Amino acid sequence: AYSFWNHENMLQIFREDWKELLPFSIVGLLLAQIGYYYGVMLSNAAVTTVIMYTEPLYVLLWMAYKNKSLPTKKEISCLFLAFIGVFLVTTHGSFEEMAITPLAFAMAMLSAVSYAFYSVQPIHLLSKYSNTLVLGWANILSAISLLTITSPYNYPHTWDMSASISMAYLILCA
User: How far is the C-alpha of 114 from the C-alpha of 26, rounded, in Å?
Assistant: First the structure.
């Protein structure tokens, strides 16, 4: 709605830059959210959040690779401390076993790496279009991709007036 009211050409991004928008939608947005929520389900929000917020480390490594330069000593110190923190959170300091399941750790790491992709990939898109338009299309495309692997219409509960009003609010106002 924001893009419509500001007279943005909402279809231009889809026509001209869909090859950049689609990976951002799936890898950046959708996998970051799936990894995070599945990681929370398998472990807890605190551990998953700590692991997910190692995202700047992956951005740092990507930028060092892309710019063909080594991280500074301060950045290397930050990398080291972050990995020590993740080690302590996920193992409670034990070299014997992890405090969370390997799958929970993998999902949180998927979220972190996807979030890093989310941070660096849409730079070109955001230089051409508003963030509202980019994120709006990304949400639509990620939702459509989820429809291909899930069946949200086979929900076992009935829709009452409260659920209908809540859904209408989400669609129209959120």
Answer: 9
CA 53 to each of CA 12, 25, 32, 44, 159: distance values in angstroms, whole numbers, following the listed order: 33, 20, 11, 14, 37
pTM, rounded to two decimals: 0.77
CB 104 within 8 A of CB 39: yes
The span from the CA of 78 to the CA of 9, in Å, is 42
Q: Residue 4: which pLDDT band, with cuts at 50, 70 and 90?
A: low
Query: 21 near 134, Cβ under 8 Å?
Result: yes
The rounded distance, in Å, linking the Cα atoms of 24 and 139 is: 10
- List Cβ neighbours of 52 (8 Å cut-off, separation of 6 or more): 32, 35, 36, 39, 108, 111, 112, 115
- Please name the residue that has the structure tokens 């110190």: 77
